[in-house]
Amino acid sequence: MRLTEVELRRLSLPLVRPFRTSFGTEVKRDVLLIRVVNDRGAQGWGECVADSAPLYSSEHVSGAHMLIRQFLLPRLAAVPELTAHQVAPTLAAIKGHTMAKAAAEMAVLDAELRELGVSLGRHLGAVRDAVSVGVSVGIADTLPELVEEVEGYVEAGYRRVKLKIEPGWDIAPLAAVRSKFPDMALQVDANRAYTLADAAHLAKLDAFDLLLIEQPLPEDDLRGHAELAQRLTTPICLDESIVSARSAADAIALGACSIVNIKPGRVGGYLEARRIHDVCAAHGVPVWCGGMLETGFGRAANTALAALPNFTLPGDISGSDRYWHRDLVTTPALAHDGYMTVPVGPGLGVEPDVPWLEELTVSTETISF
Ligand code: OSB
Ligand code: MG
């Protein structure tokens, strides 16, 4: 395909409740959507997972918007026979900016698959029609509020809960949640809030029978994670540290993790995400699909990815109602009994709720080639 028109749309969505992690609190989501149109009139949608501030990684949504417009689109529009698989090589000279690149690739891939009449799940190699999902629970103000929130998700059918932790909010919340739900699958995510000097403290988490501890140390501290792994019985899972299939292979070889969280935005797209899945499978390392508070576009694609065979742990793919009063797509996906259905329609398999999109839109820019 040749790109003929691209729309960059910025929207502001209020969250159902604030989401607090060790690096900040979000009360609304600044979403950047990309809609591409090709020379045959086919359209595709991409969602950029960058946040309004560069706190999770160095990217932020305004920077991604500018980068896509100024550096990515001119290169992509110059390719006469563009395919989704050529997006990453075409953009390889641009350093970093995986979330911006992932959004562009997602839109091209959606357009390509819609034209072919093939679903993303089928294209990636899905082996399931539904995937097991969990919910990520932010840091609360008090322990009773946390337990009440977790209870709501358990009643909604989620079978795995992930608690966000940080120094000062780790042992007590785990003790409170574990004593109330003795058999529930439970894991924690520190978003880099500790150092190796906290190893003895982190070893206390071993008592709570956790599935894993996610990203306890800084993203560039693979060696520290490898040392920590020697001192904990809880498996270490990496999120922020894994930015490519190569970095996944390195982390595994160093013994820095025994489980990998795959987020397509963090690694440059769904195609690299699949390569990470394959590298991990080859090493016997289970993976699961992370989340970035995506709307229905990103969640649909993540559900398709999570249907690959080595996604053996529940993903952070909670239903639309966990974050949104009303989603951006016409068929918002809800979790039933802890499962989300893999979309079967062509491409992402979801359609925009156009009137609602218009209402939430802060700015739109259309670029023609
Ligand atoms: O570290 O997994 C994380 C959300 C934003 C940034 C980082 C993370 C998260 C989550 C939320 O844990 C997962 C979700 O989308 O529900
Ligand atoms: Mg994480």
From TrEMBL:
Source species, domain of life: Bacteria
Gene3D superfamilies: Enolase-like C-terminal domain, Enolase-like, N-terminal domain
Residue intervals of the Mandelate racemase/muconate lactonizing enzyme C-terminal domain: 143-235
Enzyme class: lyase
EC number: 4.2.1.113
NCBIfam families reported in the protein's UniProt record: menC_lowGC_arch (TIGR01928)
Name of the protein: o-succinylbenzoate synthase
Organism: Kribbella sancticallisti
This protein's encoding gene: menC_1
